[in-house]
Design brief:
By secondary structure, the protein is α/β, with parallel strands linked by helices. It has 12 helices and 12 strands. Strand 1, helix 1 and strand 2 form a beta-alpha-beta unit.
């Protein structure tokens, strides 16, 4: 098992990143974490209030506002903090926004990843591309790089890439860059591709928090097409545990798929959310069904995603610990308890996403 002292987490003020920082700091007592985040619309320091209180004064947690495309800043950070690991989560990740503005996705997801890889290479490798001690560049990716599935089959680590949107194409490109740095320079890397995450602190442009918010506010619940697109759902805390495990025990140069083993159509998921949320709001069962509003389908909307997570189970012993219904109830409870957080962040411009 590898050990690290100073870890750079990019995009740590975002949904998944905040949970990863919490997982690392709570479970590795000597580790120091630097969180580099530009605080674009989905980045929110309120996601890390407990981290500030518990770890900032001890020097174990530092926040830096900055852009992963800023090569001078990256050079300065690597020099100052002597990182021995990078957990790279910073990304533009909203498919609809990528359709509207592909350029931003190319810049952040491809050029930003290239800048990070280059900073790690210059900091960690000598002129002959040799390492002096354990290092790890961990790149977090998505199942969307694999394209779309029909009614059968699962995405495995051997599935050929077939991205269908500017977002997934930019993530596929960044995955290839990471592998190229491993093969060309022997930079120690690992990649994971995950299914749809859900849980606390998710920006409400995503399906689950948006539906909870709209049910609470008694406003329409927009669902693409006929709501028959299928996604595999992964509880974010389980994902953070998997990331921690892969960082410390994953095979250098390897890829791991992380899935929740929970396939739901969008319409069935929304109806289940209605049932849960109406009950917790003391409304008669099915009250919010009338809010369902089918809208024009998204361009190039992938039919189905589903992950084969047998490799990470076999080699690292990870399986999702939270059943979907349990995780969904925890998620609804969190958003209804944190209505101020939800309303504050939802005041930013939203579009629909699943």
């Amino acid at each position: 098992m590898r050990s690290f002292s100073n870890i750079l987490v990019t995009g740590g003020a975002g949904f998944i990143g905040s949970h990863v920082i919490r997982q690392i700091l709570n479970n590795h007592p000597i580790v120091k974490v630097v969180n580099l985040d530009l605080l674009t619309y989905a980045g929110n320091l309120d996601n890390l209030t407990d981290i500030d209180l518990n770890f900032q004064s001890s020097g174990r947690y530092t926040f830096v506002k900055g852009d992963i495309c800023d090569k001078s800043l990256l050079k300065e950070l690597f020099s100052s903090y002597q990182f021995d690991a990078v957990i790279h989560l910073a990304a533009e990740s909203h498919v609809d926004r990528s359709i509207e503005n592909p350029q931003a996705f190319l810049e952040t997801n491809i050029l930003g990843t290239a800048a990070l890889l280059d900073a790690a290479k210059h900091s960690w490798l000598d002129s002959d591309y040799n390492l002096t001690k354990d290092k790890m560049f961990y790149h977090i990716s998505t199942d969307e790089v694999y394209g779309s599935l029909g009614n059968e089959g699962l995405f495995s680590e051997e599935t050929s890439y077939d991205p269908r949107s500017p977002y997934s194409a930019s993530k596929a490109s960044s995955d290839h860059l990471v592998r190229a740095y491993f093969h060309t320079y022997r930079l120690p890397v690992v990649i994971s591709n995950c299914s749809n995450n859900y849980g606390a602190n998710q920006f409400p442009e995503k399906l689950i928090p948006l539906m909870i918010k709209n049910i609470k506010d008694n406003i329409p619940l927009p669902i693409y097409g006929e709501g028959l697109n299928i996604r595999d759902w992964l509880f974010v805390e389980d994902h953070a545990k998997a990331i921690d495990l892969i960082l410390h025990k994953g095979e250098v140069g390897d890829t791991y798929n992380i899935g929740g083993l929970n396939e739901w159509t969008n319409i069935d998921l929304v109806k289940h959310l209605i049932k849960l949320t109406d009950k917790k709001l003391n409304r008669p069962q099915g009250t919010s069904n009338s809010l369902i509003q089918f809208v024009t389908d998204r361009a190039g909307h992938d039919k189905r995603y589903a992950i084969d997570a047998s490799k990470i189970e076999k080699h690292l012993g990870w399986t999702p610990s939270v059943k979907f219904e349990e995780g969904l109830e925890k998620t609804v409870d969190w958003y209804l308890r944190n209505t101020k957080w939800l309303d504050n962040i939802a005041s930013r411009k939203l579009t629909r996403e699943d």
